[in-house]
Amino acid sequence: GNIVSRSIGEGTNPLMFSSKHLEDVFFNLITGCVIQANLDDKITLGGICAGVAGAGVGNQKTTLEVALRKSLSTVQGINPISLENLPLDICSDKTITLYAGHQNNHGIVAISGTGFVVYGEADGGLTKQVGGWGSLLDSSGSGVEIGRKALQCLVKSYDGRIERTLLTEKILEAYDVSFLPDFFEKVLRESWSYLQLARLSYIVAEAATQNDKYATAILVEVANQIFEGTRVTLEYFHRHGIELPVVFSGGIATKIPLVSCKLQELMASHFPSVEARILEIETAQGAIFQCLKGLI
Fold first, then answer.
1. Which are the contacts of 182, defined by CB distance < 8 A and separation ≥ 6?
2. Could you tell me where the DSSP H helices lie in 39-142?
3. With DSSP H G I counted as helix, E B as strand and the rest as coil, what are the percentages for the chain, rounded to 5?
4. Per-residue pLDDT tens over the stretch 45-74
5. What pTM did the predictor assign?
C-alpha cells in the first residue's frame, strides 16, 4: 500500500514521561496524520498499532492505551463511530522492528539509536534480550555512548592528554561556540539529556568521514559493541539448535555508513551462514504489518 500521511513527534516511553505528556504527543501525532491525509470525509479507523519503547514493562501497556484512547477521542476528523471498540495493539518497539525486518515476529533485531537493545524471538516462543537496560546502567552500542565518548575526547584534548583534532572543531562549530570551556559550561548548565548526547553521533560520523582518528575509533568501538550483543543473542539460539536471521536497525546502525559496513564485515567474518542485513524500510511499517495481522 501507499503511505498516506506521516507525523513525527516527541518521545512516548511511559517510563520517562507523564500520562499528560503521552496524551499530548499522541494527539499531535494523530492530528498531524489526519491533516496530511487531506480527505474529504472523516477518517474511519480499522485499527491502531503503537510500538513504543517501555511498553513491555509492568503495566505500561495499560498506561499507553488509556492515553491513546483519550487523545483519539479529542482529535477532529475521525469518524467517532470507528472509535467504538477500536482494536488497539500496544507493543514494544522491538516487536514492530521484528515485523519490519522479517515480516513476522521470528528473528533477531539489533536496534541502535539513542539506546541499544538486541532482541530475538523464535517459533515456539523462545526469546532472548541483550541490552535495553537504559543508558544510566549501560550505554554500550548506542548514540548516547558515541556522544559521551565524544565529550570525553573534547575534555582530554583541552587538558592536553590527547591532541586536538577535527572532531573538536566540528562540535564547536555545530553549537556556535568558540572555546571549549564555554561548550563544557553549556553542557553542564543545560544538564544535557541522553537525547542531546546522542545527537552528537552525527557530528562524530561527519568527522569520521574526514578521517578524524578519534571519531573513527569511537564509531568502530560502538559497532563492536552492537556486534557483541548480537553475537551473544545468536549463540543463545544456536545452543537451542536454532539459527535466526538478523536485522540491524536504528539511526546509528542504518544511517552511519562506517557502523553499517563494520557490522556487515563482522557478521560475514564470524557468522557467514547467518542472513544479516541493514533495515531499509521504516520501523513504523512493522506496526502496519502487526496491525494488519491482528485484523485478518
1. none
2. 60-72, 93-102
3. 50, 10, 35
4. 888 999 998 888 888 999 999 999 999 999
5. 0.86
